[in-house]
Amino acid sequence: MLRREHVVLAVAATAGAALAGPVSAPTAVARPAVLTKAYGEAPGTARNVAVIVPGADTTARTFDGGRRAVYSTPGGAARALLAEARTLAPEGGLAAIAWLGYASPRTVSLDVLTDTAAKAGVAALRRTVGEVRAANPAARIVLLCHSYGSVLCAKAVPGLGVSDLVVYGSPGLGADSAADLALGGTRLWAGLGGADWMRNVPKCRLGPLGFGPDPAAPGFGATVFATGRATHSEYFKPGGVSLRNLTLIALGRTGEVTHA
After folding, report:
1. At what angle do helices 116-135 and 149-156 cross, to 10 degrees?
2. Using CA atoms, how far apart are residues 123 and 239, in angstroms rounded to an integer?
3. Which pLDDT tens digit goes with each residue over 220-252?
4. CA 61-66-67 angle, 5° bins
5. Alpha helices in the chain (DSSP H)
6. Are the C-beta atoms of residues 190 and 196 closer than 8 Å to each other?
7. Which of 134, 58, 144 is nearest to 94 (CA)?
8. Is 231 in contact with 196 (CB distance < 8 Å)?
9. What percent of the chain has pLDDT over 70?
10. pTM beyond 0.90
11. How far apart are CA 248 and CA 241, in angstroms?
């Protein structure tokens, strides 16, 4: 049974920022504790459940604070999502789970260019979704995955039975197209902010480094949603088109999502 608050550790990473300066060598990935915190309605009864999987340099300290833009943290993103949901759907129906369950490589490191940390977090994410499903079999579950977190989500999603996989600011998903992800009935969404530095990161693979094509690129096979001029940390910024579209997807009102 998923409790409303556990204990945590871990994180995500974004490929490419490692190009900005000196990088550390790859390191072994330890098994972290898992921190999840539910906001809004109880996941065991909500019609819609959104699981937020963060990107690089997220730690227990920055799980819900510790940054100037609080909405760029997992907890802050969950609260921003719920605030927007209250505007769009005053009747409620949404639970948001901030999740931190894998050891995050630093943004400026070689680790952020490999899928080692992502692979290590797959079982924990699948376990969290499984707990929600066991407690609430009728729930519509959506994964909202930022940056390096999208690499993890893409590996976890086969057979998971979530309705939607939403990636934004992604360095690539380790696949050449959506068809390679074994999505089953899961719908893939992708967004890339107009001012996101990830636009300047080469989308390629060289041996174990890199994650391949941009999932928001034409021809990849994702449904691309509008994100406006969002920077890499602004996808949940209040008042932005990105937050509105992420909330509409979380609520299941996908016909109202605006497209890039």
Report:
1. 60
2. 35
3. 999 999 999 999 999 999 999 999 999 999 999
4. 135
5. 74-88, 116-135, 149-156, 241-251
6. no
7. 144
8. yes
9. 88
10. no
11. 11
Terminal-residue alpha carbon distance, the chain: 39
Are the beta carbons of 227 and 199 closer than 8 angstroms? no
Compute φ and ψ for 30, nearest 5 degrees: -85, 155
Q: What is the pLDDT of residues 87-119, one digit of tens each?
A: 999 999 999 999 999 988 888 888 899 999 999
Residue 47's Cβ-count burial label (10 Å; 0-12, 13-18, 19+) is: middle
Written as six digits, the tokens of 33 are 């504790």
Question: Rounded distance, CA 156 to CA 129, Å?
Answer: 10
Q: How far apart are CA 99 and CA 60, in angstroms?
A: 11
Locate 193 and state its tokens: 């902010």
**Residue 26 corresponds to which amino acid?**
P
